Amino acid sequence: MERRAARTVDAGGVKIGGDHPIVIQSMTNTDTKDVESTVGQIKRLVAAGCELVRVAVPDKESARALKRIRALSPVPLVADIHFDHYLALAALDAGIDKLRINPGTIGAKALKAVVTAAVSQQVPVRIGVNSGSIHREYLHLSRIDALVKSALFYCEAIESMGCKDLVVSLKSSSVMETYRATEQFARGNDYPIHLGVTEAGTVRSSTIKSSIGIGALLLQGIGDTLRVSVTGPPESEIPIAIGILRALGLRPGVEIISCPTCGRSGYDVAKAAQEVEAHLSMVDLPLKVAVMGCVVNGPGEARHADFGIAFGPSEGVLFQKGEVVNKMPNEELLNALIKLMDLARETEDPRCKHEGCSRNSRL
Predict the structure, then answer these.
(1) CB neighbours of residue 1 within 10 Å
(2) Domain boundary at 247, 270, 285, which?
(3) Which of 247, 269, 297 is the last residue of a domain?
(4) Distance in angstroms (rounded) separating the CA atoms of residues 363 and 358
(5) What are phi and psi of 323, to 5 degrees?
(6) What is the CATH number of the domain that holds 47?
(7) Are residues 194 and 90 in the same domain?
(8) Tell me, what's the pLDDT at 350?
């Protein structure tokens, strides 16, 4: 799909916009003053695949902790600021890589001071617009129009202060409002866009809302960075984000093809598919792997898969590119599939050449 043309913004070495890969980000939910806990969570997020992490800065003590947190963080950090512009200035002094501000909660003079400092330190700014930050001049409009006009107003105001390194988000807890507002805003400008459905709920609810809202915009080529919002551990956000990007072909990785099972299934297909998925979750080779419950859905319907297994009443088949390569008892199929895939990974992925590579691990 063709990406919307957007200017490139650099957040501590992470490029957002242009032709750069869509950046996955999240936000810590630890007490920012607790440096050890916050850094620990940042590292867990990075291990899961997060590339940019936002931290809340609600008070002076949190701002003072930022310098140590930034020094220990393996990825660039974004300071999340509301109301008190002095916290934004303190975050900049601490070496933060990007600011997220809500202009609707900061006065004009205070906003000017923050923008001037950000420009002088070459730190990009994300303008976050939601239902709580609609400009008073647009409160009479529909929510969608108010979000769009508020975002454009704030962008124009901040650009007039000399800041060109802007990223913009328009978020609502409504999937439809988020989609329509973002799609409308994306026309006629080249600001990099941060995607997300805010307050999306639990893992189950957020997976549904985010897949629809974020996915629909990505299908139109809109979006340069994203955050999946989950009520709970932020580490749970990353697999959803990666899954959305992989499903749209926007990030390399293994695609698991598995049937929904039926009365013909002679084996626990769900468990087998889950084990294969877990084994390959961090593999970024563009492979299709099939786990099928019977020969009806085996090499025939899954002919396009690179590798696959199809269980039978007592024995099944191992196949590659639609061709059966072996037949064996059901209990042996899973390990045979994993060995075949690992052999292919060692051949195709230069990072797997050395002995003991974690990418070569078995179940």
Answers:
(1) 9
(2) 247
(3) 247
(4) 12
(5) -110, 130
(6) 3.20.20.20
(7) yes
(8) 45
CA dist., res. 146 & res. 181, Å (int): 9
Residue 285: pLDDT above 70? Answer: yes
Kindly write down the DSSP assignment for every residue of 262-319, as one continuous string. -TT--S-HHHHHHHHHHHTTT--S--EEEEESSGGGTTTTTTT-SEEEE--SSEEEEE
Is position 1 within any domain? no
Calculate Rg over the CA atoms of the chain. Answer: 23
Tell me which of 293 and 14 has the higher pLDDT. Answer: 14
* pLDDT > 70 fraction of the chain, expressed in percent and rounded: 93
- Give residue-wise pLDDT tens across range 192-228: 999 999 888 899 999 999 999 999 999 999 999 999 9
Q: What's the pTM value of the predicted model, to 2 decimals?
A: 0.87
238 near 26, Cβ under 8 Å?
A: yes
Token pair of 16, please? 């957002």
Q: How confident is the model at residue 360 (pLDDT cuts 50, 70, 90)?
A: very low
Q: Is residue 225 part of a domain?
A: yes
Q: How many domains, the chain?
A: 2
pLDDT on residue 298 = 66
Is 239 in the same domain as 288?
no
184 shares its domain with 261 = no
Query: What range defines the domain where residue 345 resides?
Result: 255-360
Full strand arrangement of the beta sheet holding 315-320: 255-258, 288-292, 307-310, 315-320, 323-329
Task: Name every residue whose Cβ is closer than 8 Å to that of residue 121 and which is 6 or more positions away in sequence.
Answer: 92
Helix (H, G, I), strand (E, B) or coil at 125: strand
Q: Are residues 354 and 335 in the same domain?
A: yes
